[in-house]
């Protein structure tokens, strides 16, 4: 698998999640935090509505990367969450090769809302 | 946040991938429920909460003041559906900083996942944040 610096690995729009998606993801991750499913709780915490789980963005990054390069090649993924995501907000998720060192390819990943707001950034490494 | 928890290591607990939970995990993403492999980030710190590593309670983080700062995954080997993994949780750093709007606390927590023979297959680090 030959990769070059600047190569776009993927650039996709993940449709906004609905509340059932959030509830399923909470159940699937055994996450008891009501902030993802309880409107009143989320508002009391200072948010306009329930929050999409940060790990859902991590999961999108890993799943999309695995689909492109092979899950068994993934070595690391380091994600920083930068803004909350709310139900119905599409995310543009992109991965671009930043370097190749030996047999490891590194890439930068980004997640953005349709207005350009960054919601997460990440770096990852995978076997070439 | 309980700063004196830094360095605490929890008693190991076990986690085995559950296809039913993985299906929910994938459907929650709006993704196809392809269970040919255990999804790469299926293992997640949240599963420790009912298995003895209740981070929010032990660190004293009220849920409504909590933020999730980030996650790091390092994969060392494949994880199969039949792998029952031993999970060791370490509160690596617990720090306090002064932000523009008040104090902010950070906790970096490491989850090391190993097979029964001790072979480490995954390290996950999660960063929890508490706002004042």
Topology at a glance:
The complex is a heterodimer of chains A (128) and B (132).
Chain A: E1 8-14, H1 19-28, H2 39-44, H3 54-69, E2 74-81, E3 91-101, E4 104-112, E5 118-127
Antiparallel strand pairs in A: 1-3, 2-5, 3-4, 4-5
Chain B: E1 13-15, H1 19-28, H2 55-59, E2 66-75, E3 85-99, E4 102-114, E5 120-131
Antiparallel strand pairs in B: 1-3, 2-5, 3-4, 4-5
Question: Characteristics of this structure?
Answer:
heterodimer; A: 128 residues; alpha+beta; Thiol Ester Dehydrase, Chain A; 5-stranded antiparallel β-sheet; 3 helices; B: 132 residues; mainly beta; 5 strands; globular
Structural features, described:
- The complex is a heterodimer of chains A (128) and B (132).
- With 128 residues, chain A is of the alpha+beta class.
- Chain A has a single domain (8-127), classed as Thiol Ester Dehydrase, Chain A (Roll), CATH 3.10.129.
- Chain A contains three helices and five strands.
- Chain A has a five-stranded antiparallel sheet with strand order 1-3-4-5-2, with helices on one face.
- In chain A, β3 (91-101) and β4 (104-112) form a beta hairpin.
- Chain A is elongated and about 50 Å long.
- Chain B is built from two helices and five strands; from the N terminus they run βααββββ.
- Chain B is globular and about 45 Å long.
- With 132 residues, chain B is mainly beta.
- Chain B has a single domain (3-131), classed as Hotdog Thioesterase (Thiol Ester Dehydrase, Chain A), CATH 3.10.129.
- In chain B, strands 1-3-4-5-2 form a five-stranded antiparallel sheet, with no helix packed on it.
- Chain A binds chain B through residues 14-15, 17, 21-35, 41, 44-46, 53-56, 58-60, 62-63, 66, 71-72, 74-81, and chain B through 21-31, 37, 39-41, 44, 46-47, 49-50, 63-75, 78.
């Amino acid at each position: 698998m030959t990769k070059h610096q600047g190569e776009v690995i993927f650039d996709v729009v993940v449709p906004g999640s609905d509340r059932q998606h959030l509830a399923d993801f909470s159940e699937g991750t055994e996450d008891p935090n009501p902030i993802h499913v309880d409107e009143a709780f989320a508002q009391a915490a200072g948010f306009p509505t329930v929050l999409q789980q940060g790990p859902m963005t991590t999961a999108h990054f890993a799943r999309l990367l695995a689909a492109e390069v092979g899950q068994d090649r993934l070595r690391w993924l380091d994600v920083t969450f930068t803004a909350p995501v709310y139900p119905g907000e599409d995310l543009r998720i992109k991965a671009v090769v930043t370097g190749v060192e030996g047999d490891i390819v590194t890439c930068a990943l980004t997640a953005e809302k349709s207005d350009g707001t960054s919601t997460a950034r990440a770096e990852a490494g995978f076997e070439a | 946040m309980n700063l004196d928890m830094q360095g605490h290591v929890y008693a190991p607990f076990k986690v085995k991938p559950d296809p039913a939970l993985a299906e929910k995990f994938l459907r929650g993403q709006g993704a196809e429920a392809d269970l040919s492999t255990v999804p790469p980030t299926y293992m997640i710190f949240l599963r420790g909460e009912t298995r003895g590593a209740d981070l929010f309670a032990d660190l004293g983080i009220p849920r409504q003041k909590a933020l999730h700062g980030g996650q790091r995954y390092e994969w060392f080997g494949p994880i199969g559906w039949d792998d029952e993994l031993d999970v060791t949780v370490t509160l690596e750093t617990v720090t306090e900083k002064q932000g523009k709007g008040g104090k902010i606390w950070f906790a970096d927590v490491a989850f090391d996942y190993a097979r029964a023979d001790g072979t480490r297959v995954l390290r996950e680090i999660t960063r929890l944040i508490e706002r004042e």
